[in-house]
Amino acid sequence: MTADTDVQPLRGAQLLMATLLLGLANFMVVLDSTIANVSVPHIAGSLAVSPSQGTWVITSYNVAEAITVPLTGWLAQRFGPVRVFAFAMAGFGVFSMLCGLAPSFAMLVAFRVAQGFCGGPIMPMSQTLLLHIFPRNRAPQAMGLWSMTTVVAPIAGPILGGLISDNIHWSWIFFINIPVAAFVGIFGYRALIAHDTPTRRIKVDGVGLALLVVWVGALQIMLDKGKELEWFASPVIITLAVTAAIGFCAFLIWELTEKNPIVNLRVFRHRGFSVAVVTISLSFGAFFSSVVVLPLWLQTSMGYTATWAGYAGCFTGVLAVVMSPVVAGLAQRFDPRYLTFFGVTWMGLISLWRTFYTTDVGFWFIAAPQLALGFGMPFFFIATNTIAMGSVNPEETAAASGLSNFLRTTGAAFATSIMTTSWENTASAKRAMLAGELNDPAGTVAKMEAAGFTHTQALASLERMVQQQGTMLSTTAMFWAAAAVFIFAACFIWLAPRPRPGAAMGGGH
Predict the structure, then answer these.
(1) What DSSP string runs through 418-455?
(2) pLDDT tens digit string along 440-457?
(3) Which helix (H) or strand (E) holds 307?
(4) What residues contact 136, with CB distance under 8 A and at least 6 apart?
């Protein structure tokens, strides 16, 4: 897997250091996709914009990252994965610094776009390089570390973002990237440059790139702004949807007929890759949307602060860290389809467990399913990525990694938009239903007034109770829906062919 057959493979401490560097890079980029979420009110207030405008700090980064992730395969062939990785790390650090120093909101959004362009290739490149430097029979161990950082980072992001914004200043959510990017970029380049793959001059597919920018940009903005603009009741959302649909169809036609496409869609000819990517997208979408809805419910209905809502959700990372190396070892001995089926089914059972939540549930009953969820996450991430990457040819690894990560993140964005909108709409419907079924509301108000409440206080208290119960019913409905998606995804993985022994990565078809 090296550019020069005389170059000795990494072993021992060198392999460990390179692995830690790549894992840290992936952790930083995934963390940055969620760390700004809870900081939007602080940023909007500091730079004198509305909270709705403040969400462009998130949207601009997501759009730019979504555009560059699928380009990973082309960039790796043209410049080499190590050079792309090092350059992206350098750019990520520079633009992180500029985001923290931005004097206006417009400048912050511009720097976030640039940061997203640099951050996009880092995640798939870290995965690709791990598969390059690890012996093929130890590839599941590489996927174990990579998957662990992918699981833990989205959970740590909101907690860290809240603590920094509340106690220091929002700019530090960007400044903390600078030393990490510098350290990983410099030492990662020095450790891996001898193992870079050969490059070749490839004609730039300008039409494919333009179509990619159009349809991905339109789709991502539609997903991010859909709930705010009431979805298809808005002509803006309709225009974005039509643009994304037409752009996507044109993109598919062009890329499948272009000799040197900017995105190699031909990797989908491998059935194992296609099935695994669908399973990844569905499962991660159900997981990530649940990660978003849970703290929303805790903060809007259960009286939790942002920090404590983050604490309730952070326990997922505990067993995920513990089980990742264990599952990596199991992936070398057992059919990864069994491991994926177990992991995704486990996640579905945890979602069913959450349907037992009530309005008087305590902190630890909320945290316990999160802790148990971490046990099954590595089975899903490691085994499914093993199937996906093991189904493509070695030279297709970078392109496959980019497409897999793109579909995973896009699936998560789409699922989150659907679930949050459904959660709010269902809560309103349940509230109306409960209000219509109240047994003698006038008598209840009279009893509260007799207990010392004013009429206004009694009505407000009754309204809060109905609202809380309606939101609770909506939340459990969302967990039922997530469980159904998990079970479907668990069964879907059996459409993948059985991986061939010894073809852990980049060898099976």
Answers:
(1) HHHHHHHHHHHHHHHHHHHT-S-HHHHHHHHHHTT--H
(2) 666 666 666 676 667 676
(3) helix 306-313
(4) 502, 503, 504, 505, 506, 507
